[in-house]
TrEMBL record:
<dbReference type="GO" id="GO:0038023">
    <property type="term" value="F:signaling receptor activity"/>
</dbReference>
<dbReference type="Pfam" id="PF13855">
    <property type="entry name" value="LRR_8"/>
</dbReference>
<dbReference type="GO" id="GO:0002322">
    <property type="term" value="P:B cell proliferation involved in immune response"/>
</dbReference>
<dbReference type="GO" id="GO:0001875">
    <property type="term" value="F:lipopolysaccharide immune receptor activity"/>
</dbReference>
<keyword id="KW-0812">Transmembrane</keyword>
<keyword id="KW-0675">Receptor</keyword>
<dbReference type="GO" id="GO:0005886">
    <property type="term" value="C:plasma membrane"/>
</dbReference>
<keyword id="KW-0395">Inflammatory response</keyword>
<dbReference type="GO" id="GO:0071222">
    <property type="term" value="P:cellular response to lipopolysaccharide"/>
</dbReference>
<dbReference type="GO" id="GO:0042100">
    <property type="term" value="P:B cell proliferation"/>
</dbReference>
<dbReference type="Pfam" id="PF13516">
    <property type="entry name" value="LRR_6"/>
</dbReference>
<keyword id="KW-1133">Transmembrane helix</keyword>
<dbReference type="InterPro" id="IPR000483">
    <property type="entry name" value="Cys-rich_flank_reg_C"/>
</dbReference>
<dbReference type="InterPro" id="IPR003591">
    <property type="entry name" value="Leu-rich_rpt_typical-subtyp"/>
</dbReference>
<dbReference type="GO" id="GO:0072686">
    <property type="term" value="C:mitotic spindle"/>
</dbReference>
<dbReference type="InterPro" id="IPR001611">
    <property type="entry name" value="Leu-rich_rpt"/>
</dbReference>
<keyword id="KW-0677">Repeat</keyword>
């Protein structure tokens, strides 16, 4: 068995010695050791987790047993030096996690195996200074991700990072950005994380001079979240000219000036959790190459304005969720000239009014998320009918009036539809309904819709569905017939009012891939014996069987359906004798009637 172990988790490794002082006083001393032979038999071990073990000693040969160790976790183990860990023989090592310890230097021992090292995590240690020798010990590792988050670097020796290449560097929580940018000169970094945290006092004024070191670096992505940008000018980002992605989440921005220099090549911009009042305040013309824009969770109500993003003709993805956006006529004026937009998120906003072809300016949309945004559809025709490429539509909890038969017209490519939390007239999906227009639909979510019944032909045009979620409604077993034309689907019927499933509906369940029936008031009496037998024979199809219980009879309430044993039929021998008895009784009865009639005739 030991040879097949690929991951080993140790919550505590210790030897304990107890000395009895008295009957009421016993003092114990626990010492944490890893001896020579601890992992001797774990030859195929790939991951070793020693998190939260206050280690005191590791033998020099403690890790010689595993030959393919790739991932080591020494988080919160109390160590103060990397030399404590004897990894010199682990040539396959890919990641080493050393967070929440007392390490003061990132310098690796000379025999440390860096050939395949990809992740080196020192977050939340006591590292405050980086020297040339520290960084040079990492140079044999290619495309390394180095995490120094939570260490507050106060000094970097000049030239320490000269000619170095990193996949990512994380200096999160460092108070002085000036120290970082000066120290990283002449380096090449894919992703640089310089964000700070709520509990760190950051009074440093962000200015263009602070970023001058960036002019001597090559960086693709920078994260500056939660820093304070007090006064952004057109030259603040002068040294960002090679940047592809910039994250300014929660940086207290109220507006961006026009004419910003240095961001013309930017592809992805995150401006979430800021203080814009109007979408035009981001001055979109500063970012002509932008393909991804995220303004999520704005702390003030955001007005969409008119044509604020029309210069972003290359935009592919736009997230304006959680922004308290409200407009009576959305969204053509607001999204003007975004003809290449493929993903739009307007979820968790205030009421939006939609007219026919409300997204005419975005004909390339493939994903549209309007979840938890109340929609007022003002015309009889569909507001989505020009979205011929739309694949995913999230209308959950939009309080839509689904009585509009044309609501979902014009969506020939739709694959995934989420209508969770919406209501149908009288809690019933009739044969004629908006869903019948969606012949390409594969995933349908109708949970929490207060449904009580579904017409047996309500989904007749939806022939290729493979996932149907009808959970958390008031459906009974009669609605299962609406799925009789479908095979191999995932069917979620959890939390409904299904009690007895008649034998005629069992073939419908049998032809599905996975079924969830938990939290239904299932009848476990002989009235439902055919279903109970089917249930035990099809356990491989059933999901959450540990949470699927009987509701009736009272004696079996709370018992897992899979554990129910019923005997609802007579034995074959009993049936044979019953038939014989009934036949004999019939013969005797006929004979007695004949004798009686003959006797009566003779005495007339």
């Amino acid at each position: 068995m030991a040879l097949d172990i690929s991951c080993f988790l140790l919550v505590a490794l210790f030897s304990a010695s107890c000395q009895a002082i008295g009957s009421s006083d016993q003092r114990c001393t626990e010492i944490y050791w890893i001896h020579e032979d601890t992992f001797q038999s774990q030859h195929r071990l790939e991951t070793l987790v020693l998190t939260a073990n206050p280690l005191i000693f590791m033998a020099e040969t403690a890790l010689t047993g595993p030959k393919a160790l790739k991932h080591l976790f020494f988080i919160q183990t109390g160590i103060s030096s990397i030399e404590f860990i004897p990894v010199h023989s682990q040539k396959a090592l890919e990641s080493l996690y050393l967070g929440s310890n007392h390490i003061s230097s990132i310098r690796l021992p000379k025999d440390f195996p860096t050939e395949k090292l990809k992740v080196l995590d020192f977050q939340n240690n006591a590292i405050h200074h980086l020297s040339k020798e520290d960084v040079s010990s990492l140079q044999q590792a290619t495309n390394l991700s180095l995490n120094l988050n939570g260490n507050d670097i106060t000094g970097i020796e000049p030239g320490a990072f000269k000619s170095t290449v990193f996949q990512s560097l994380n200096f999160g929580g460092t108070q002085s950005l000036l120290v970082i940018f000066k120290g990283l000169q002449n380096s090449t970094i894919q992703s640089l994380w310089l964000g700070t945290f709520e509990d760190i006092d950051d009074d440093e004024d962000i200015s263009s001079s602070m970023f001058e070191g960036l002019c001597e670096m090559s960086v693709e992505r920078i994260n500056l979240q939660k820093h304070h940008f007090f006064n952004i000018t057109s030259n603040t980002f002068y040294c960002f000219s090679g940047l592809q992605e910039l994250d300014l989440t929660a940086t207290h921005l109220t507006e961006l000036p026009s004419g910003i220099v240095g961001l013309s090549k930017l592809k992805k911009l995150v401006l979430s959790a800021n203080k814009f009042e109007n979408l035009c305040q981001i001055s979109a013309s500063n970012f002509p190459s932008l393909t991804h824009l995220y303004i999520k969770g704005n702390t003030k109500r955001l007005e969409l304005g008119s044509g604020c993003l029309e210069t972003l003709e290359h935009l592919r993805e736009l997230d304006l969720s959680h922004d308290d956006i409200e407009t009576s006529d959305c969204c053509n004026l607001q999204l003007r000239n975004l003809s290449h937009l493929q993903s739009l998120n307007l979820s968790y906003n205030e009421p939006l009014g939609l007219r026919t072809e409300a997204f005419k300016e975005c004909p390339q949309l493939e994903l549209l998320d309007l979840a938890f945004t109340r929609l007022h559809v003002k015309d009889a025709q569909s507001p989505f009918q020009n979205l011929h490429l739309l694949k995913v539509l999230n209308l959950s909890h939009c309080l839509l009036g689904s009585s509009n038969q044309h609501l979902l017209d014009g969506l020939p490519a739709l694959r995934h539809l989420n209508l969770q939390g919406n209501r149908f007239p009288n809690g019933n999906i009739q044969k004629t309904n908006p869903l019948q227009a969606l012949g390409s639909l594969e995933i349908l979510i109708l949970s929490f819709c207060d449904l009580s019944s579904i017409d047996h032909q309500a989904f007749i045009n939806l022939k290729i569905m493979n996932h149907v979620d009808l959970s958390h409604n008031r459906l009974t077993s009669s609605s299962i017939e609406a799925l009789s034309h479908l095979k191999g689907i995932y069917l979620n019927l959890a939390s409904n009012r299904i009690s007895i499933i008649p034998p005629s509906l069992l073939p419908v369940l049998s032809q599905q891939r996975t079924i969830n029936l938990r939290q239904n008031p299932l009848d476990c009496t002989c009235s439902n014996i055919y279903f109970l037998e089917w249930y035990k024979e099809n356990m491989q199809k059933l999901e959450d069987i540990e949470d699927t219980f009987c509701a009736n009879p009272p004696l079996l309430r709370g018992v897992k359906v899979s554990d129910v044993m019923l005997s609802c039929s007579m034995a074959a021998v009993g049936i044979f004798f019953l038939i014989v008895f009934l036949l004999l009784f019939a013969v005797l009865l006929i004979f007695a009637v004949k004798r009686f009639l003959r006797w009566k005739y003779q005495h007339i």
